[in-house]
Q: What sequence folds into this?
C-alpha cells in the first residue's frame, strides 16, 4: 500500500505562540490586509493589537459574527471587500471565521456579480487558484480549519451544504495559542473538542487513511480524551491539550477527509440546529460499530479512547455530553421518527459517505439514527 501525506501549513502551537504573528505578517510584505475577526474582544490580545497597529495603514478589520456561515452571508462579506485587492487575509475566530477567510481567498480570484453566480461557482468547483494568502488563528479548539484546505458553506434555503475545496488553499501559517480559547463556555469547548475527536477517529478508519494520518489521529484522540474531564472541571491546562489535539486531528483529516459521522450529521445540524460537534459525536459510537470489521488495529483506537468496546465508548461520549449540558439523544433536540426518511435522504454527502469503509445504505443509516433517537 502506497502511503502519501501532504500538508504545507507552518504551524505554531502553544501558550504565547501568538507572539510570532507580527513577524509572520511582516515576512509576507503584503500590500493590503484583511483582518477578519469573530468579535472585537480579540483585538485586546497584545499580539493581535500589535499586528493591527504595525500595519494600520494597509489593514482593514471586518467582523463576521455568524456560526455555520450561509451562502448569502459569505456573499455579503465578499461583496463588501472584493474591490480592496487584499493580498493577505488573517482570520481570527472559530471554524466559521476561518472557513469564510479561506473562501474569500478563492472568491477574490474570480469575481462574481450575484449570489446565484457564487452559488453556482462553488457548487461546480470552478473557482480559481486563490488570489491571496491567509493565516489562521483559531479561537476555538475543534474544527482544525487552520490546517485544512477546504471550507464549509451552508445553504439552508436549498437544504444543501457545500465545500470550497482546493489544495491551493492551505493556510500560509496557523497560529494556535490556547489563550484565545480559554474563555470559551464549557458547553462550546466540549462540543468543539468532540468534533476534533471525530475528525481524528474518522481519519483513522477512512478509506483514504495513511500511516502519518493514523499516527496523528491516535495522538489527537488520546490527548483530548485524557484531558476532557479537566476541561469539564475548568482546568486551565486542559485548553492547551485541546488546542494540541485539535491541531493534530486537523493534520490527520486534512489528508483523509471525514466519513459517515460527518455525512449523517449535516442534516441534523441543518434541521434541528444541533451544534456540529454534538451532532457528530452522537454518531461516533454507532458509526464505529458499523465500521468495526474494517478498522485496522482496532485495539489501538480503543486504547486511545480509553475504552475496551464500542458500548463503553457510547457510554463515555454520552456522559461527556450530558455533563457539559448538551442533550445526547435526537429526540431531545426535537427530532421525530417521521423525520427519518428525510434525514436519510440527505445523509449521503459525496466525499464523506463514500469515504466510509463500510458501505452506507438507507437501511443502516436509519439504524444509526434510531440508535441515538
A:
Amino acid at each position: 500500500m502506497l502511503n502519501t501525506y501532504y500538508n504545507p501549513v507552518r504551524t505554531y502551537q502553544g501558550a504565547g505562540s501568538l507572539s510570532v504573528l507580527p513577524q509572520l505578517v511582516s515576512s509576507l510584505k503584503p500590500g493590503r490586509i484583511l483582518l477578519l475577526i469573530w468579535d472585537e474582544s480579540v483585538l485586546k490580545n497584545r499580539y493581535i493589537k500589535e499586528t493591527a497597529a504595525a500595519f494600520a495603514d494597509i489593514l482593514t478589520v471586518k467582523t463576521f459574527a455568524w456560526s455555520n456561515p450561509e451562502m448569502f452571508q459569505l456573499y455579503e462579506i465578499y461583496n463588501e471587500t472584493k474591490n480592496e485587492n487584499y493580498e493577505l487575509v488573517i482570520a481570527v475566530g472559530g471554524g466559521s471565521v476561518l472557513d469564510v477567510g479561506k473562501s474569500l481567498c478563492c472568491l477574490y480570484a474570480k469575481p462574481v456579480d450575484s449570489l446565484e453566480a457564487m452559488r453556482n461557482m462553488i457548487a461546480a468547483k470552478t473557482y480559481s487558484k486563490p488570489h491571496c494568502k491567509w493565516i489562521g488563528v483559531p479561537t476555538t479548539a475543534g474544527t482544525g480549519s487552520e490546517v485544512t484546505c477546504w471550507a464549509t458553506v451552508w445553504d439552508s434555503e436549498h437544504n444543501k451544504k457545500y465545500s470550497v475545496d482546493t489544495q491551493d488553499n492551505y493556510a500560509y501559517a496557523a497560529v494556535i495559542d490556547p489563550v484565545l480559547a480559554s474563555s470559551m463556555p464549557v458547553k462550546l469547548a466540549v462540543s468543539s473538542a468532540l468534533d476534533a475527536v471525530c475528525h481524528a477517529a474518522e481519519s483513522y478508519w477512512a478509506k483514504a487513511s495513511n500511516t502519518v494520518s493514523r499516527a496523528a489521529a491516535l495522538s489527537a484522540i488520546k490527548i483530548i480524551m485524557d484531558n476532557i474531564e479537566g476541561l469539564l472541571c475548568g482546568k486551565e491546562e486542559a485548553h492547551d491539550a485541546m488546542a494540541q489535539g485539535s491541531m493534530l486531528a486537523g493534520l490527520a483529516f486534512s489528508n483523509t477527509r471525514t466519513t459517515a459521522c460527518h455525512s449523517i450529521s449535516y442534516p441534523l445540524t441543518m434541521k434541528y440546529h444541533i451544534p456540529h460537534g454534538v451532532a457528530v459525536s452522537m454518531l461516533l459510537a454507532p458509526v464505529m460499530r458499523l465500521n468495526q470489521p474494517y478498522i485496522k488495529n482496532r485495539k489501538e483506537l480503543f486504547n486511545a479512547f480509553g475504552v475496551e468496546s464500542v458500548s463503553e465508548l457510547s457510554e463515555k461520549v454520552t456522559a461527556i455530553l450530558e455533563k457539559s449540558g448538551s442533550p445526547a439523544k435526537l429526540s431531545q433536540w426535537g427530532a421525530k421518527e417521521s423525520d427519518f426518511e428525510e434525514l436519510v435522504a440527505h445523509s449521503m454527502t459525496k466525499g464523506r459517505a463514500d469515504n466510509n469503509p463500510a458501505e452506507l445504505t438507507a437501511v443502516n443509516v436509519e439504524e444509526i439514527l434510531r440508535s441515538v433517537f
In short: The chain has 14 helices and eight strands. The mean pLDDT is 96. The CA atoms of residues 191 and 277 lie 5 Å apart.
